[in-house]
Amino acid sequence: MKRIVPALLAAIVVAGCGGSDGDEAGAPAALNVVPAALDLKGGSTTTCYDGFAVEAFIYGGAAPYYLNNTFPDVMILNKSKVESPGGSFTVTVNGGCFDKGTIVVVDKMNRTTTLVITNKLGTTTTP
Predict the structure, then answer these.
(1) Which is it for strands 65-69 and 75-77: parallel, antiparallel or unpaired?
(2) What is the phi/psi pair of residue 25, to 5°?
(3) Averaged pLDDT, 38-42
């Protein structure tokens, strides 16, 4: 009985410390998205890219990650949530010209990072 009581108390103390959620244990790596920026210039002086897609990857922070598109009329996301670190999403531009369209990535701890995209008239292709 003398051995059981200390072992039982130790088990209660360990159980009271919470689970072992890897996303909340310690300080997770900084939240970031790769690429962090994309500058597009259309193939002519009269058109912006239409249908160009980029795949972006999310690292660090605490999954899941939620995506907020600030320019939904000119940038299309293939999803609104990424489930795990290293996961990705695709952004497709639909031909509208714009400067600094932002995709805001928010992790489960409410930390944020951004992907900034521009789609301008031009003669230089920069993907």
Answers:
(1) unpaired
(2) -80, 120
(3) 90
Residue 97 tokens read as 């010209």
Residue indicated by tokens 């997770």: 28
pTM over 0.85: no
What gap in Å lies between CA 27 and CA 6, rounded to an integer?
A: 32
User: Closest by alpha carbon to 56, among 83, 80, 84, 37?
Assistant: 37
What does R_g of the chain's alpha carbons equal in angstroms? Answer: 22
* pLDDT at 123 (0 to 100): 67
CA–CA gap between residue 17 and residue 13 (Å, rounded): 7
Both tokens assigned to 41? 């210039």
Q: What percent of the chain has pLDDT over 70?
A: 74
Q: Please, what are the domains in the chain?
A: 28-120 (2.60.40.10)
Report the C-alpha gap between 66 and 81 in whole angstroms.
Answer: 4
The DSSP symbol for 79 reads -
Residue with tokens 């890219």: 49
Residues contacting 4, CB < 8 A, separation 6+: none
